[in-house]
Design goal:
Blueprint (H helix, E strand, L loop, with lengths): L8 E3 L1 E3 L6 E3 L16 H12 L12 E3 L4 E7 L7 E7 L5 E5 L17 E4 L5 E11 L2 E11 L5 E4 L8 E6 L5 E6 L2 E6 L5 E3 L8 E3 L4 H7 L5 E3 L5 E8 L5 E6 L7 E6 L9 E8 L6 E2 L9 E2 L3 E3 L5 E8 L4 E8 L5 E8 L12 E2 L7 E6 L6 E6 L5 E3 L7 E8 L4 E6 L8 E6 L7 E2 L8 E6 L5 E8 L2 E9 L5 E6 L3 H7 L7 E7 L3 E8 L10 E7 L16 H7 L3 E6 L9 H5 L8 H16 L3 E11 L1 H12 L6 E5 L10 H8 L6 H7 L11 E7 L7 H13 L4 E6 L12 H16 L6
Parallel strand pairs: 1-47, 42-43, 42-44, 44-45, 45-46, 46-47
Antiparallel strand pairs: 2-3, 4-5, 5-6, 6-7, 8-9, 9-10, 10-11, 10-12, 12-13, 13-14, 14-15, 16-18, 17-18, 18-21, 19-20, 21-22, 23-25, 24-25, 25-26, 26-27, 28-29, 29-30, 30-31, 32-33, 33-34, 34-35, 36-37, 37-38, 38-39, 40-41, 41-43
Length: about 775
């Protein structure tokens, strides 16, 4: 076998001065590339302004909380007395009267001179004590580990919780409902600390790297959104918690080559499709300590998930979801907390996969929880249902041919369920409400003249909401509204200054349309054109792609500046949402991608590019580029490999070249098991189509990616080398999936993407 020329792979070495990116590369195939200073200084200035100085980031209300059911709300505001610190301020909801509840000065520990940094906070049920989370440290994706302090409003005392534990080791601390204790996790064990005498009781004793109590393993956190994994009983007498046993789960090793003179290793458990999962169970332990009563959940604990669990309200029973490994059957179980016995309340099934609810909400007729709010697509739409606790029967309360996007409030006092939806308009979201008795059709609450995307934080008493509104032309604004009428009470933040700043980028207004493809569907599409756009000329097109079930790209909301800055370089930037993306278009749209990731989405993205070129005469089909990250990186590879020649240059960052190497929960949810869908895994994996590469391809990956491992990209690199393909490759040492760690990284990554596309897809009209 003849050796592959060393020029078959170029490792890109990038140097980033203040406003320019100079890329020096080795010769390719005997040709030398000219030195270039790209992208433009204006583009680089925009990146620095966005990522380093935050000049394009909208202001948002900071850590707001409702008090007294909604009579007041609290917010963090800069402290005039202590620069860089905050005061915790309360507002009377009806009048706007302001008062400082906890000043920054009150949060200065004894012997120190600066206030605690508030990374999070919560109130005791009676509002007399504040639990402050500080010194937050990152655990995988979020900062969920740190220190906790309790501040008493009555005597202004400030006391650290878990003071004897290692620094910044506490997780998910929370008051008991009676306010007498705080529970927390440290070292994978659960502890309770009395606030009267600060005596600490250790409730679990088997926590280790293998046994996890009160928090979760890697894959559950990433794919099921569960991190805080213990719950106080309503009477404060017990704690229900998850336990994960990781023994037998495949161990992955990350190699850090740069932190020390010799490489260091980090190992953690990461289950791959068809492999061994952690065994999960739920138990109840007395807050005074003692043996755990384990809940009797049917089935193999290694081949079922318990994604949600909580007390029902009377401290006698627990409700939980038991999800099978294929994630197409979800059993809602009610468990006796003392005996551990369970009974089936409700079953939700789908031929593809079922979605999960975020929390258990109940109607409480006569003081007892009577009906569970449930979300299901069993009738072809994502609807809200009320499930009777007595009979298990479900009745739909959102009776219209449209999807509920997200629940907002179960308002039993007024007889309404509030939620967001957008019938017939999948790129927007509005507030709707329906009657709890299921009669009538849902009514829109958001005013008709506010086209765009709306998010609501409703008060528990159903009277008020903090309303966030944005559109492609309107930066996020925040106001207090009366929930039922949507009448504005006061503006909190308007962000109007961003409009002029964004307009200085001088793009054309973002356009929304639909692109019909031969699959028989129309894909939501956004278009960003360059300044001074001339429709009589030909422009290069850059496609920003994701295309998998985790996210949509096309929505009428305020967008990050990057697309506009790229367009200003002389490009038409577009994105298409194919079938399988989580748009509110009905179950059939979303489930079409089942066992088709890398197949259906690749086909429809290719069809959309062709259709867009045919219907938009200003597109130069000889200058088309694409970029995508994560699932979008995989889609980019599939476009280049399966549909050669359609795209001239592409950048794939942190892709999944081989679906069999990604985590079990995500991949099995959408593709099934490798043992039963070997062909689907093969056909959807870009690595198996690499022989089709003909254009210019840059692959980017962080070597410290704990989510989508560097391993897959390395295997793809080896295959491309074996095929004799010329391509480009950039690794970011020790960066995670976010490609954001380290000074200058985010600017560098985004500049590199555009610099590469500009090199092979020249910008500007012709």
């Amino acid at each position: 076998m003849s050796p592959v020329p060393c020029s078959a792979v170029r490792r890109l070495i990038c140097f980033l001065p203040a406003f320019a990116l100079t890329l020096n590369v080795a010769p390719v195939s005997g040709q030398s590339l000219p030195d270039k200073t790209l992208p433009s200084a204006a583009f680089m200035e925009t990146l620095h302004a966005e990522f380093e100085r935050g000049e394009y980031r909208p202001q948002v209300p900071s850590e707001s909380r409702w008090l007294d059911g909604g009579r007041r709300y609290t917010i963090l505001e800069p402290s005039p007395a202590h620069k860089g610190s905050v005061d915790l301020v309360a507002y009377e909801t009806a009048t706007g009267a302001r008062s400082i509840l906890v000043s920054a000065a009150s949060l200065i520990p004894a012997g120190q001179s600066t206030p605690l940094r508030i990374d999070g906070y919560q109130w005791s049920a009676d509002g007399t004590q504040l639990l402050v989370f500080t010194n937050a440290q990152k655990v995988w994706r979020l900062r969920t580990r740190g220190d906790y302090w309790v501040f008493r409003l009555a005597d202004k005392s400030l006391t650290q919780i878990g003071a004897a534990a290692p620094a910044t080791s506490l997780m998910f601390a929370k008051f008991s409902p009676d306010g007498h204790s705080v529970g927390y996790v440290s070292g994978n064990n659960i502890y309770v600390e009395s606030l009267a005498d600060h005596q600490v009781r250790q409730l679990t004793h088997d926590g280790s790297t293998e046994i996890i109590n009160g928090t979760t393993d890697w894959v559950t956190e990433e794919e099921l959104g569960l991190r805080d994994a213990f719950r106080w009983s309503p009477d404060s007498a017990a704690i229900a918690y998850w336990q994960f046993d990781q023994s037998g789960v495949g161990e992955y090793t990350l190699i850090n080559d740069t932190e020390a003179a010799y490489p260091t290793l980090f190992r953690y458990r990461y289950p791959q499709p068809g492999g061994t999962n952690a065994a999960v169970r739920v138990g109840v332990v007395s807050a005074q300590g003692g043996a755990t009563q384990w809940i009797h959940v049917p089935g193999d604990p290694r081949n079922n998930y318990i994604p949600r669990m909580d007390w029902i309200g009377d401290s006698d029973e627990i409700v939980l979801e038991s999800l099978n490994r294929l994630q197409n059957t979800n059993h809602v179980l009610i468990a006796n907390a003392r005996s551990g016995e369970t009974r089936l309340l409700f079953e939700d099934k789908d031929p593809a996969w079922v979605d999960l609810i975020e929390q258990f909400d109940w109607l409480s007729g006569g003081g007892r929880k009577t009906d569970l709010l449930w979300t299901s697509e069993r009738d072809g739409w994502r609807h809200a249902w009320l499930v009777s606790r007595a009979t298990g029967e479900a009745r739909c309360i959102t009776n219209f041919e449209a999807d509920m996007i997200a629940p907002v409030l179960l308002d039993e006092a007024h007889g309404y369920f509030y939620f967001t939806a957008s019938p017939g308009d999948p790129i927007r979201a509005y507030l709707y409400r329906s009657r709890l008795d299921g009669t009538g059709t849902p009514e829109r609450v958001t005013p008709q003249n506010e086209a765009g995307s709306h998010v609501y934080n409703a008060s528990p008493n159903g009277e008020w909401a903090i309303h966030e509104y944005s559109s492609a032309a309107h930066p996020p604004s925040y106001e207090l509204v009366r929930l039922g009428t949507h009448a504005t009470v006061r503006t909190m933040i308007d962000n109007d200054a961003l409009i002029a700043k964004e307009n200085a980028l001088d793009p054309e207004p973002i356009e929304f349309t639909e692109t019909a493809v031969p699959d028989g569907v129309a894909l939501s599409t956004f278009i960003v054109k360059p300044p001074h756009f001339d429709p009589t000329k030909k422009y290069p097109m850059l496609v920003n792609v994701y295309s998998e079930p985790a996210s949509t790209m096309v929505h009428d909301a305020w967008r990050f500046t990057f697309d506009k800055a790229v367009a200003r370089e002389g490009y038409v930037v577009v994105a298409f949402d194919n079938q399988g993306t989580p748009a509110p278009r009905g179950r059939a749209w979303r489930r079409a991608i089942y066992q088709q990731i890398g197949i259906l989405n690749a086909r429809e993205q290719s069809q959309a590019i062709t259709a867009f070129e045919q219907t938009h005469a200003y597109i130069d089909s000889t200058r088309v580029g694409m970029w995508g990250h994560s699932g979008g990186g995989s889609a980019t590879l599939n476009e280049m490999f399966q549909y050669p020649g359609q795209v001239q240059a592409a950048v794939a960052s942190s892709p999944v070249p081989d679906e069999a190497l990604y985590d079990s929960i995500y991949q099995e949810r959408y593709m099934g098991l490798p043992s039963t869908d070997e062909k689907g895994y093969h056909d959807g994996s870009p690595i198996n189509h690499a022989e089709g590469l003909t254009g210019h391809l840059l692959i980017i990956h962080g070597s410290g990616d704990d989510n989508v491992h560097f391993q897959g990209t390395e295997r793809l690199v080896n295959r491309l080398i074996a095929l004799g393909k010329t391509f480009d490759f950039m690794d970011y040492p020790n960066r995670t999936h976010a490609l954001s760690e380290g000074a200058g990284t985010t600017v560098h990554v985004n500049a590199l993407r555009l610099r590469y596309l500009e090199e092979y897809v020249p910008p500007g009209p012709r």
